[in-house]
């Protein structure tokens, strides 16, 4: 199964607008070429929070590059 495609903020706004205009969720998913579960979760999040932005994810961003990670690994061995 291919990984789920992320919708950008513009596409999320379009999806919500189409849904509010009466377009069925399946049709919205077809128009955006995503799974219906993506649209269902988006609509649920929008009705609960009133926002279409993604939630913040915990954790700090990585400070090392993949190249530095390989170097550290080689030095440890």
Shape: elongated
| Biggest beta-sheet profile | none
Give the domain tally.
Answer: 1
How many individual β-strands? 0
The proportion of residues in beta strands is under 5%
CATH architecture: Orthogonal Bundle
* Count of individual helical segments: 4
Order of helices and strands: HHHH
Q: Estimate the helix proportion, in percent.
A: 55-70%
Strands, helices and their partners?
Layout: H1 9-20, H2 25-32, H3 36-49, H4 66-76
Helix pairs in contact: 1-2, 1-3, 2-3
Pfam families: HTH_23
Organism: Littorina saxatilis
Biased composition (Basic and acidic residues): 65-77
Plain-language structure description:
- The chain has 77 residues and is an all-alpha fold.
- It has a single domain (1-54), classed as Arc Repressor Mutant, subunit A (Orthogonal Bundle).
- 58% of the residues lie in helices and 0% in strands.
- The chain is elongated and about 60 Å long.
- The two termini are 36 Å apart.
Short description:
The chain has 77 residues and is mostly helical. The protein has helices spanning 9-20, 25-32, 36-49, 66-76.
Main attributes of the structure:
77 residues; mainly alpha; Arc Repressor Mutant, subunit A; 4 helices; WH-like_DNA-bd_sf; Paired domain-containing protein; Homeodomain-like_sf
């Amino acid at each position: 199964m291919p990984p789920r495609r992320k919708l950008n903020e513009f596409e999320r706004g379009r999806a919500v607008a189409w849904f509010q205009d009466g377009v069925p969720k399946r049709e919205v998913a077809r128009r955006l070429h995503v799974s219906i579960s993506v649209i269902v979760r988006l609509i649920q999040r929008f009705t609960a929070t009133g926002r279409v932005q993604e939630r913040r994810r915990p954790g700090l961003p990585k400070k090392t590059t993949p190249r530095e990670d390989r170097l550290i690994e080689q030095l440890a061995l």
